[in-house]
Amino acid sequence: MRKTLNWALTAALTVAVVSGCSNQTGGAVTPSKDVAAPAEKTTTAPLKENTFTFLDYSNASWPYNKDWPVWKYIKEKTGVTLNVSFPPDALLDNALNLTVASGNMPDLLYTQSKKTADKFGQQGALVNILDHINEMPNLKKWMVQFPADTQNAISADGKMYVFPNHGIGETNRMNWMYREDVFKKNGLKTPANWDELYTVLKTLKQAYPDSYPMAWRQGLLYLRNFAPAFGTGSDDSANDVYFDSDKKEWRYGPIEDNFKKMITYLNKFYKEGLIPPDFLTIDTKQWQDLMSTDRSFVTADYISRVDFYNLPMRKQNPSYNLLFMPTPAGWPGGPQKNAYTQFLENGLMVTSTSKNIKDIMHFMDFFYTKEGLDLVSWGKQGETYSEENGKKKFIGNYADVSDMRKKTGLSTDGTYTWFDYDAHLSLSSPELQDAYKQAVNYDSQQQPRPALTQQELEVISTTGQTLLKTRDQALAKFITGQRDLNEWNSYVDELKKIGVDKVVNVYKAAYDRSQVAKK
After folding, report:
1. Distance CA 363, CA 414 (A)
2. For 229, left (φ over 0), alpha (ψ -120 to 50), or beta?
3. 135 contacts 358 by C-beta, under 8 angstroms
4. pLDDT band (50, 70, 90) for residue 17
5. What is the DSSP string of 59-80?
C-alpha cells in the first residue's frame, strides 16, 4: 500500500483504544447513548454563502422535494445551498458511472455502496477526505468516538473517499419477534434456546394444524441472522467469511460444526412442518400473508416490523401483538446473539474536479457537530420539534417516520452523516421503543468490513461466487432432506476444494492491511 492513514486518523484511533471511549468495542448501545456529544465543545465552521452542485438519490417512498424545510435549515446554519439533481429512473449506480465517465461531475456525489466510492476514488475521480482532516476538527473528534465506522470507510489504498456515517443504520437492525397474544393464549413462554424453540413450535403446530409456526423470507439469506446464536457466522456481505473476535481470526462459517447444528435443527423443523415447505422461495408478500393470518407466530426480520404489523392488524384483531423476542441460543447456555446488521455504507463523496473542495470540507465538518446532529435528525427547534427537560419531540402530527420524511425532508439521502435515531423512535409505538431497548442486549460485535483491492474482488467474484452457489445448493438439500446430513464432511471437502482458504485469505489480507494502516 503506497500510503497509510495520515497521522490524524492514526492519533484518533489510538486515543479511542487507550481511552475506551468508543461504544463499538462490544455490542451497540441505545441510540440515545450513541449520540452523546464529545467531551470537547464542537465548533461550527464560519457561515459562508455557497452553492454546491450535488447528484443525489431520490427515494420512491419520500421523493425529492426542493421545498423541503431541511434545505432551508441547512442553509441557515452553513450558508450552503445545494443544487440537487438525481437520476430520473432511480438507478443511481448507472448515473454515477455515466457522470464520472463524462468528466463533467458536480461538486458532490451520493453513493449507496462503499465499493463504488473506492472504485471511483482509486480512478482519481474523488477527493481523499483524509488529506483535509486538519481542516475538519469536528470530524477528527468524531473519529475518536466511532473508530469502527471510521475504519470501515477506509479504502484498500488507505484513503477515505466517502464520508463515514453513524446512527441511521439502526433502521437495518434485525431481531426475533413473536406473537405474544398467541403465546399467552396457549400458555407458552419465549424460548431461551433452540431446544425450547422446537418444543414451542411443536405445541403451536398442534394447536394450529394448518400453520407453519416459524417463518421468514428470502430463504437461506436469513441464516446470517441465526448463525451467531450457534457461535458461528454467515455474512452475506462477506461471502460467509466472518471475523472471530475471540480467536482473532477469519473463518468460513458454513463448514463449521456449529453451523451443522443449526442446519440439523432446520432439517427437523422442515420434516415436522414447523416451517413452510416452500421456505426457500417465500418472498416478502408471502411472508407477510403468513404473519398476518395466524399461520406463523415466530419470525426474524427488521425490528420495525413490530409496528408494521401491529398498527394495521389491530384494526381487525385488537389482541394482535407482535413483540420483540430475546434471541434463542443455539444450545442451552450458548450465545444469545443476533447478527450485527445496523449499519449503512451510504454516503457523500467529493469530486476531484470541484473548484470548491476546501469550502465543501468546512461544510461537511458541520455535520459532525452536536448542533449538526440535532439539525439533520430533528430539524429546527420551535418549528419541527420542541424540547423539555432535555427530551425532544416532534411538533407535527406525523402519522409515522415516512410521513415525517415526506413533509420535512429530514433523514432523506444526502442530508446527514451522523444521525440521532431517537428522532425516528419518537414516532414509534411504545412496543417498538421497548424492542430497541431490549435488542442491544443481544447484539454480536460489528464485523469489520475491510476494503478489497481489485485483484481481491476478482477472487470474490469468481471463487467466492462458486462457493456461494455450491453452498446454497447443498444447504437447501440438507434442510429439505434431499441430502443426508451424514454427508456433511463430504460437503465440507467439496467447499474446501473449490477454495475456502483462498476466499478466507482475501479477507485476512485485507484486514491485516487495515490494521497496519491503523498503526
Report:
1. 13
2. alpha
3. yes
4. very low
5. -TTS---TT-HHHHHHHHHH-E
